[in-house]
Amino acid sequence: MLDLSVNPFREGLTESRVADPCAFVIFGATGDLTHRKLIPALFSLYLESLLPSNFAIVGFARRDWSDERFRDEMWQGIQAHARRLAGEREAWEGFARSLFYNRSTFQDPEGYDRLKTKLSELDKSHDTHGNRLFYLATPPSDYEPIIEQIGAHNLQSEERGWARIIVEKPIGTDLASSRELNSAIRSVFPESRIYRIDHFLGKETVQNILVFRFANSIFEPIWNQKYVDHVQITNAENIGLEGRGAFFDKAGIVRDLAQNHQLQLLTLMAMEPPSSLRADAIRDEKLKVLQAVRLLTREEVDEHAVRGQYTAGLVQGQPALGYLEEPNVQPDSATETYAAVRLFVDNWRWAGVPFYLRVGKRLPKKSTEISLQFKEIPNILFGATQKDAVRPDLLVIRIQPDEGIFLRFTSKEPGPSMRLQQVRMGFQYGASFGTPSPEAYERLLLDAASGEQALFARDDEVEAQWRIVMPVLDRWRELGRQGLHEYQAGTWGPLEAFSLLTRDGRRWRRI
Amino acid sequence: MAPTDSTLASVDISTIEDELTGLWKQQDESAGAVLRTVLLTLLAYCRNSDCAQRVSASVAAIAADHPARAIIVTDEAAETEPNIKAWVSVSCQLVNRSDKQHCSEQVFLQAHGADMGRIVSSVQPLALPDVPFVLWLADGAIPQSDVFGKLVQQSDRLLIESAVAEDALDLFRWVTDAMHEPGPSVVDLTWIGLESRRLAFAHQFDLEKWRSMLPEVDCVEITGACDNGKFSAETLLMAGWLVSRLQWYGYGVESHTHPGQTAPSHSRIVRLIPSASGQPVERVTLKAGSGMEVSVDYSADGTEAHVHAEAEEANEQRTVPMKKRSPERLLCGALEIVKQDSVYLDTVRTVMEILTEPAP
Prior knowledge:
The complex is a heterodimer.
Chain A: E1 22-27, H1 32-47, E2 55-61, H2 67-81, H3 89-96, E3 99-103, H4 109-125, E4 132-136, H5 143-152, E5 163-168, H6 175-186, E6 194-197, H7 204-214, E7 228-236, H8 245-270, H9 279-292, H10 298-304, E8 305-311, E9 313-315, E10 318-320, E11 338-344, E12 354-360, E13 367-374, H11 383-386, E14 394-400, E15 404-412, E16 420-428, H12 429-432, H13 440-450, H14 459-479, E17 484-488, H15 495-502
Parallel strand pairs in A: 1-2, 1-4, 2-3, 4-5, 5-6, 7-12, 8-17
Antiparallel strand pairs in A: 7-13, 8-11, 9-10, 11-12, 13-14, 14-15, 15-16
Helix pairs in contact in A: 1-2, 1-13, 6-14, 8-9, 8-14, 9-14
Chain B: E1 4-8, H1 13-31, E2 34-36, E3 40-46, H2 49-61, E4 68-76, E5 83-94, E6 101-112, H3 116-123, E7 133-137, H4 146-154, E8 157-160, H5 168-178, E9 185-188, H6 189-193, H7 195-203, H8 208-211, E10 217-224, E11 226-227, E12 230-231, H9 233-245, E13 252-255, E14 269-274, E15 281-288, E16 293-298, E17 304-311, E18 314-321, H10 327-335, H11 342-356
Parallel strand pairs in B: 2-6, 3-4, 3-7, 4-6, 7-8, 8-9, 10-14, 13-14
Antiparallel strand pairs in B: 1-5, 5-6, 10-15, 11-12, 15-16, 16-17, 17-18
Helix pairs in contact in B: 3-4, 5-11, 9-11
């Protein structure tokens, strides 16, 4: 008997996971994110046949654009930013027939009336099954009015299909505003239909952390305080503000990158094995880690955290402005462009193991990585001459660029004498898997359209992350520029950040 | 980068290993950063040197994705003078946007008029430990040798390419027989190559409206390449796939190469039509007595499919992009499959049924 609840022709296809039929509604459709990331990602999914034939995209924004203008602008975005492009003009024509534009301010109820009518029409013309995926690609200040209007127009109704919402980070600017925003979203959408996106979690290497830890038997037994000396999580950027001066000067690097990306990496590194790969099973375990992170007191912040601000310098041979000279930055700004912090996860597995997190702009190179340094061996075998040659083993998970995993260990140099040397064993994504990794947004949009929440943060996770960084942010706000250390652009941050580790008899890994 | 070769006088395993070590050393010294990784042993069986060259080029091209120790056996049975030649080669490619090179090693064994059993027993020690052993019947020929049969059973994966087989039917029969034994998973490159066509077709039935009409379908029509009365493996596989997915039991086959070979007494018909263009699969259609008809026309360049779906009060047309994959990408795709594809097995069984015409 033919089972018609599923498409029988999809079974066995290697690309069998296809998004549900749906209408994507992008608020902020004329913005940079839509142009650079969202439409190119949706187009790639279309080219990979991972979008169903019955989809539609409705751009919603203030600018006076027509459907045609919207399509033309998005084609420009595709040409500039799509992962796959060559010879795809014809495919674009097919894709573009599903693109529409709805001009409105985010507060205007009539704009939402028109949107509602358009979505009903698309259900008929494009067979989108009443399924809607709302994407808030707007500044966070627009989130609440949009959500309010969605609710007022009952666009979140699931009478005929499902309705989900994707919200871009940052979720709030502090714990209180995060709670307020979460509460506003939940007043219209239940948690099971909210997708808080952080593109970082869509990266292959980040997803691979769970596989690496839990699909291999050799690492998990040593993944604890008995064997691990400390963990370093580095998120280094060589770029400056890139036109984001006004936003960044209010936010700072902790809000921009540490509160979300770095703490998410910490949870993936430190979490216990989940009981399944279901979204909530994974998120429950991540939450437990965040709840186990020891919160810093006001006094401890001064001892455990360092902040810095870059001054003019040379980055990769090019002169770089100092932070205070950047456009749209207050001349006396106390915003941190570098932060380093020592955290402890107070649970059985990680008791006493410091997690050093550092994040910065205008550092010598772009790199995001996690390293686990294992404990030293008892140095009794190799004598005084070779003592320094025996360095602790190191496992590095590199997120970007050159995604991969490396293990540093000690080996004997060839020759008659017992001379020891550090060697490196590596796995590189690019070298081991020829197919390029999909863009993070492709994976995440596909997940959201398929109802898979594992790679999206839950409200309690986001709030727990804020709870960890708030003592630091509060203390730094109190201090103003006092205790804000300068570092020259193109260097690895202020000297005080090095002291944070040298005081513990450790040092930052050279990247 | 051109391969570095070393010709050997005989099939001596230790000599081959020594030569390979020498070649690697040479690469290390001359080429800077060289990544030497081996993820599988690939034993390719060819019956002529053209096939061996094609395999050699493919293996080198996929070195970055699937670095392998390739052992290419050429069984030139037509030659009467017994002669065995062996040579080794290391071939390198630059890794994307870097100065690093990815290298793979190849061992060539050419046997003229020699006993395949001897060759096969010679190459077995060359297989690397702890990595998958993949056997590739690169020109679709099935070696007639007991030793080779044993080798098939020992391999983890068996790669075939039904489209290049002289007689696809023979190959499918051999595959269905092999499937009864515990043995390797069979991967057909031709089947992998059909994936984009299948995907383009499947799209239309994501829509429940069209899916609900599938039980009404009473005619599956495939237009595809036909040579001397034999339809292409692609045509047969598409037909077998559709019929098995529709779960038809009992149907007639109407082949337009043999006009008399019709089965009007059946309520369900599989119709095979030779294409004028010579495209492996040009058009696929499902029809129902109710007037429902879904047809997909594949463009000659394999980059898009035009879907036309018609039923009462519905008339839809759309163009679906298709991924066009080079032979190397197909080979990569095939090597990434580690489990037996049960849909393929059902398809091949159904192809056998279609070709032998099921009883009413």
